[in-house]
Amino acid sequence: MNKLIQELFSLEGKVALVIGGTGELCGAMAGGLAGAGARVLLVGRNEEKAKARMESILTMGGKAEFIKADVSTKAALETLLSEATSLAGEIDIVINGAGVNSPTPFLDVEEEELDRIMNLNFKSVYLACQIFGGYLVERGKGGNIINVGSMSGMIPLSRVFTYSASKAAVHNLSKNLAREWATKGVRVNTIVPGFFPAEQNRKVLTEERVAQIMGHTPMKRFGNAGELVGATLLLASDKAGSFITGHELVVDGGYACMTI
């Protein structure tokens, strides 16, 4: 491989904390980070899923550990920061990817569901940015945060009202923080998956829904998790992505550019 390309995308010596790393999409992103040389700390609640992901990373010669954590409160995130830095020394890259979806019709959305989705999809990201962003700013060595957004955070989609609102808030927060921390060397970007079948959206992918998605996606297919890796490495690299902050990097098979 060309030496320049290796240098641009190498993450050797970096530590990446991947919240939601036991899931399908963030798990693939974590694998990509490990393949580029980063030491990956997978954060989630399911130890069995974590074991499978770690085995995959270790098999390819990468470095990975699992931290079991609930990221829904500030106290829990402070504990996570303490555990992560005790384990790995420092953290350079933070990916916020935990999320949940629901197909409930708007007039039927109960307060409990609204609170649950907003808390996990937005509040947990907001708090993680406070805790880990604060850490990165205070240590004075730069770093970067990649928040996982959604096409529905850019273009309101039917049937996922609360999910769309929560992701739109993540997009807005990311741009705000990118501006706030630009002179501190801390980059904040949003990776925006189009339609990727994953646990959180399988229940909304009815036959009718799939037909609508395919009709609006120029590539006429769903994405696969591995196709998020290249975008992740671009944003994570301090060399390849050094001047990229406040950006929404769309990986969607052309969905966002489709009109009539």
UniProtKB/TrEMBL annotation:
The keyword Cytoplasm does not apply. Keywords: NADP, Oxidoreductase. One of its GO terms (biological process) is carbohydrate metabolic process. Pfam families: adh_short_C2. GO terms for molecular function: oxidoreductase activity, acting on the CH-OH group of donors, NAD or NADP as acceptor. InterPro entries: NAD(P)-bd_dom_sf, Sc_DH/Rdtase_CS, SDR_fam, Sec_Metab_Biosynth_SDR. Belongs to the short-chain dehydrogenases/reductases (SDR) family. This is SDR family oxidoreductase.
